Amino acid sequence: MSEDGPGRRSVPIPALADPDRLRSLDETRLDAVPDEAFDRFARLVGDLLDVPVALVSLVDADRQFFPGATGLPEPWAARRETPLSHSFCHHVVDIEMPLVLPDARLYPRVRLNLAIEDLGVVAYAGMPLTDLDGRVLGSLCAIDSKPRAWTKEQLRTLADLAAACSSELRLRIAVRVAEQARRRAEEAHDRLAMLAGMSEMLGGTLDVATAVDRLGHAMVPLLADWCLITLVDPAGRPRTVTGVHRDAGCEADLARFAGLLTTGLSAESQIRSVLRTGRPVVRAEAGLDDVARGTTHPELVPLAERLGVGSHLTVPITAAGDRVIGAVTLVNRQGRRGFDASDLRTAQDIGVRAGQAVGNSRLYGEQRHVAEVLQHSMLPSLPAVPGIELAARYLPAADRVEVGGDWYDAFVQPDGELIAAIGDVAGHDIEAAATMGQLRNLVRGNAYGRDDPVEDLVAHLDRAMGGLRVPTVATAVLARIRPADEGLRVSWCNAGHPPPLLVRADGTVSVAGGRGPLLGLARPPRRTGRTLTLAPGDTLLLHTDGLIERRDQPIDEGQADLITHLGAGGPGVPLDLLCDRLLAAAQQWEDDVALLALRAG
């Protein structure tokens, strides 16, 4: 049997460090501060047993504290706690039964306990206070400063009060557990909602940087206090590291931390381990030592200290074929619970979804590059023609691969005349662009070196599309421009395309009518040509329907708006500036836009 006091070594009491017992003690949310309910229990013990001191004493691993107390001398009354060197109650925790001592000075277990001298504890009677599982959290005790023979009635009263006090403790624990369960249920609901919306959220963009930013803000602060998202290059080395912190004041530190991390991971880095093996790593308790081991740059440790590190987990971001293309790291600061198996499952699910989004974004980027090369190869350089000023623009629909079926062309005939064309093939993908290329080449091959009327050229184009089985229906305007005494003579044929607009030198705007059937119909129609004259300073504007078509208004209204905008610009606007203004006015266009403008010199 052990004795407490200077010069005597106490045998360790395993029950004091039992994690389940300490968890129950923590769930009471009691500490060394007065609690009215437990002070009432202490007063009842003092009154009913006629003792000078009564305590509701709870015992953790290295101290006892008193949420309920009466009669304690100073300074202990103010402190509401003592070390275990002054505790009889921790022996109640040890033996898990009542401890009744008429004169503590006569019992080897406690005769050297400092409570005898410092607190005046001589007679002691302590009844166990238990949680729902019977674990002893402390004692309801009666104390006298002189020897005392405890009667059966007194001990029975003390036991009854201890049972009631235990019920109050259990109620506190149950409330705490219920609150935790409610929070966990809310967290689970929020996580499910986040996961349910994540595919749509990440799928709403094909830009990798935007997808990563959305991912970070979805996880913080719901899942963690801050996060890092690492993406690797084809060789598996960290290429970019980005982060999000719940505290906006930490943004600069986190940006610096993420920037240094791209080259500052050591061989022991857990991020590097996840990138290499594809297996997640969880540290429910972590600190700056983890950062120091995992990094090589000395600045990273003080940065991590400011950001806060209490626990962390890292999971892989996997693409098709379980190929690791990055990692998600979640970090909690001290004071927030450590990550557990539920957090790991959620993070792994996020890693898979992030991999799909990043993979799609990278595939889009590759397709976009191919599309840009294809599109630019099919958009010609405008020729220099004496007496004619030319300008052209092409822009893809917003948020789409930069390729589509809109096109323009202008080339000089052997006799010096200019052929100008604009058209639109259905679709917004590489297939549409390839068909557009076929059609443009047919226009060139069909018209070059021939002096036929434009309506005959378009009719021949109809027959060529049918005979060569060009798989599309398209619109186009084909125009021949030749010098005339009064300026330029323009002959054109419209195959289902928005009509050209004529902007006179004085700023007036009109529509060049004469719209015919589409190109590529099974039964080619008869084509009709039109003519007009451009005086010096006059402009002919050819455009595709992306400039005037809107989802929320008829195309006629869009054309009227365009005419109004052209008229408001006034006379003499430089041709390049005119084209730029038209595109700027279109704002977030919903379709590809092609413009071809020519002005008589």
User: Tally the helices: what do you get?
Assistant: 16
3D shape? rod-shaped
Q: What would CATH call the architecture of the largest domain?
A: 4-Layer Sandwich
Q: Could you name the CATH class of the largest domain? A: Alpha Beta
**Spatial arrangement of strands, main beta sheet:** 3-2-1-6-5-4
CATH structural fold name of the largest domain: Phosphatase 2c, domain 1
The average pLDDT is 89
Helix content bin: 25-40%
* Structural class estimated from helices and strands: alpha+beta
The termini sit apart by 114 Å
CATH superfamily of the largest domain: PPM-type phosphatase domain
Strand content: 15-25%
Low-confidence stretches: none
Rg, rounded, reads 42 Å
Overall domain count: 3
Strands, total number: 22
Instruction: Report the major sheet.
Output: 6 strands, antiparallel
